[in-house]
Amino acid sequence: MSKLLLSSYMSFFRKSLWVLSLATVSLFVISDETILINAESVEIDLLLNRLIDVTNGLNESDLLEFIDYDDYTAYQSKAFLRLSQQVGVDDFTDAKIAQYYALYCIYYATNAVANSITDEDVRFQNITMPEWLVAENWRDETNVDPCGGTTITPTNGTTETSIAATLFATSGGGWYGVTCDAEGRVVALELYRNILTGTLPEEIVLLASDGPFSTGAGNLGKLDLFKNEFLSNGGDSSWMSNLGSNMTTIIVEGTGFSGDIPLLPENLVNFNIRNAFYTGGLTDGNFAFASRLNYLNLDGNMFNTSIPVTLRELPDLEYVYMSDNLLVGDLSPLEGSPAIMEFWADGNPSLTGPLFSWLGSMTTLASLSLAYNNLTGSIPVEFGNLIKMEQMWLQFNGLTGTVPTELGKMTLLRHLELESNAFTGVIHASICNNTEGSFWVPGTLQTEGSFLVPGTLQTVGADCFDLWCPCCTCCDLKECVSGVHRSPSIL
């Protein structure tokens, strides 16, 4: 049947899809257009039914949009049609069909697609939406497996040996950013700094190792979308909860993701949403099953809530970053934390209360940053127990009292900043003796001049016009922020 003859039926079948199943070509009639698609599938309708079955009907109505031709724009429809063009698609396993479809959904939903972020950004006015920076083998190839290798369709006379030779001779490197295991399942998707736009689709759950939408297409353990600043999640990250028990790393730092933190996967190790736009979900329940969580970076999101108590119950949690989160309350939810090595929670003006004495029992701490908050009270003498401490920033709070001599037990300490508080007295020789360089310490056998101290302490900041500090390298907030480095010997 010619395209001309086929088009003559349009008045009778205005909203009908005609598929002329040929060995390598199919004609699709959509609304008032005739689109020639080089489909490899002999039976498009059977392929569609297989896809619906294997995906457990996920977004089935959107997938079938190519039958309702009022609006032929759904990324699912585009993904299916692209799937149908793959060499040998009728011989694909269900898992491989789901794999291609899930990846094409991601591509068509995030490549040169506008969203609320781009709509509000003047840089996108009157320009063509940018495409992915790198899209090797995602768009133009129809015979390159996402996991690497070239697919072929066996014909009469083709032997196992010739197939192997052909694959060896023409195998490709797979699709950019896709890593697979030996069984051909996607284990990592790394599309960082790649100018993704649009909204990341929930079809990514088809790559999960298990769960309600697992298809065998993936064993996904890592999702890295770092610094795709124009990529949205549509305000909904609930799909993260269904990424499977093998998911260990989620990185959406510097994206346009917003809404609530979801219930985190049970074996998640690294969760980084730094400088995104989350405003909710910082609750005990969403961390309840993340017993393997080791790295948590929430910096730059505005939660306006307290620190979840659940964090202190996570046995492997070592790195916690909660700066500029609009945290409220105090530090009491951290009491009893067994493993935290770094805790940074700067720039939370509503974070109040004291530096509790029990903080001195968190002997795993090596880096503590609580600057630019509203903490009060004194530094507990128990801080002397933190012998692994290497960095401690407490500037710009409401702390008072004297600086405990016990801080001198922190022999690994490299940076200590106490400026813009209300400390009195002196930075004791027990602390200054840990500095590197030369300075004068009165009351010692060296009654004049200076002497060399081979210590580790490189930076000491304090209000040394109010607090006598013979080893300070900067003497107020302005100096310390600007990087002024005084010689201790001049004091």
General description of the model:
The protein has 491 residues and is α/β, with parallel strands linked by helices. Among the domains are: 3-92, no CATH class; 352-491, Leucine-rich repeat, LRR (right-handed beta-alpha superhelix), CATH 3.80.10. It contains nine helices and 21 strands. The protein has helices at residues 3-7, 44-54, 60-63, 75-84, 94-110, 116-119, 160-170, 429-432, 477-482; strands at residues 26-30, 33-37, 178-180, 186-190, 218-224, 249-251, 258-260, 270-272, 277-280, 295-297, 319-321, 342-344, 367-369, 376-377, 391-393, 398-402, 415-417, 422-424, 436-439, 451-454, 459-461. A twelve-stranded mixed β-sheet has the order 3-4-5-6-8-10-11-12-13-15-17-21, with no helix packed on it. A three-stranded parallel β-sheet has the order 14-16-18, with no helix packed on it. Strands 1-2 form a two-stranded antiparallel sheet. Helix 4 crosses helix 5. The longest helix has 17 residues, at 94-110. Residues 1-36, 151-172 and 438-453 have low confidence and may be disordered.
Write a short abstract of this structure:
With 491 residues, this protein is α/β, with parallel strands linked by helices.
